[in-house]
Structure of Antibiotic biosynthesis monooxygenase:
Amino acid sequence: MTSLTIVANIIANEDKIELVKSELLALIDATRAEEGCINYDLHQDNNNPAHFTFYENWTSPELLQAHLRSAHIAKYKTATEGAVASFTLNEMTRIG
């Protein structure tokens, strides 16, 4: 199988943008060090600062699942409980 691409969209509550941003930034180094992580890049919308997107590539679905069960993801979820208006995760395969 080719690599698995993830596009994760996080919309922070308007009054929690800086908290969510800080917690998302804290995920980067630990995640990039994980087995199977090809890239893990965080973006913030230029017109809507509450909208964050992770663009990620993983070597396998199993290693993505290990990431989602990691201690740093659990810490992020606890720290941002009630601060995120919406979260979507799309698993995608590059076709061209």
